[in-house]
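Much of the work behind modern protein science is quiet bookkeeping, done one molecule at a time. The protein below has been through that process, and both of its lines are reproduced in full.
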Amino acid sequence: MTGFLQHPLVLGIFLVLGLVLLVLVAAKTGLLRILDQRLNTPRPATPRHESGEITEEVIAVLTAAAAAMLDDAVRVRRVRMFTGESGNAWTSVGRLNIMASHSLARRKT
């Protein structure tokens, strides 16, 4: 084995591959750090309705959007205001992935 690593070409290839691997790992960790900072920076609050209530018009718009998306009649049973203050961006992304994994089964009426 010592004779194998004493060959200059093999040693050079190992050194170059090692340096490339180190650069890739450093770039990946730097990109992850930047992504984490961007996801966890607080965004300015969106303006809300003064009363904090969800109006009939908003419910009508939500119902129409859901009906257009599903190409079927839709009944809105409950509407809640989402504050968006979950505390952690990774938690929000995890919740979105779980919600996206659920398939919407059409009910026979």
